[in-house]
Amino acid sequence: MLLLTGLSLALVFICLVMLSKLVDLVWRIFPSLLGRSFAEKLAGHFSSISRQPKRLLVVFLSSVTIQTALVLMSWWLGKAAGIGTDVGPWLFARPLAKIIAVLPVTLNGLGMREGVLASMLFPFGADAAAIVAAGLVWQAVMFTVGGIGAVFLFITNRIDPAAQESWAATKDQQPG
Considering only Cβ atoms within 10 Å of each terminal Cβ, which end of the chain, N or C, has fewer? Predict the structure, then answer.
């Protein structure tokens, strides 16, 4: 399984490196295809990223570490709610439930994520009601932390004029 994962990541990296050549090839084959300028810009950005493989690796490992920490905290909350499953099924089910929650069916995936997580962990002996309860508590924690972060951002932008100038300069540089 680990070999398959490594090969998949290598294939994705190779495709990102080769993206600019693939974009040219696609528009040589289909010259009337829409979206060429967008695809060329996207390929240029990926090309610039691929020239910095160490930075890309650091960002990737940071992302994996943060997401694993979030899954482990969710598993710990589930344990506190009385869900007796091992961490392995959580490491599999939680990211899939988060991906499915992106579907535009409910507000911020509420209910979808918990339902998917309950259905995926049920075969491992987990109580579906406890999973849904733990998932809703987790979302309440995430909303609360996000709200605290927003208040902190608002306060620091009010107090620090340099932060406001930096924000304005960044906002002015963005296209569109």
Answer: C
Residue whose C-alpha is closest to residue 90's, from 60, 50, 118, 53: 118
Scan for tokens 């829409």, then name that residue. 34
Q: How confident is the model at residue 144 (pLDDT cuts 50, 70, 90)?
A: very high
Residues 56-73 have pLDDT tens digits of 778 888 988 998 898 898
- In this structure, are 15 and 84 located in the same domain? no
- Inform me whether the pLDDT recorded for 7 exceeds 80: no
The single residue listed with the structure tokens 């960044």 is: 170
Q: What is the DSSP string of 2-60?
A: HHHHHHHHHHHHHHHHTHHHHHHHHHHH-TT-S-HHHHHHHHHHHHHHHT-HHHHHHHH
- Domain ranges, residue 30: 1-51
* Residue whose entry in the numeric block shows the structure tokens 């490992």: 61
pTM over 0.85: no
In-domain check, residue 59: no
Q: Residues 6 or more apart from 55 whose CB is under 8 A from it?
A: 49
Which residue has 């259905």 as its token pair? 119
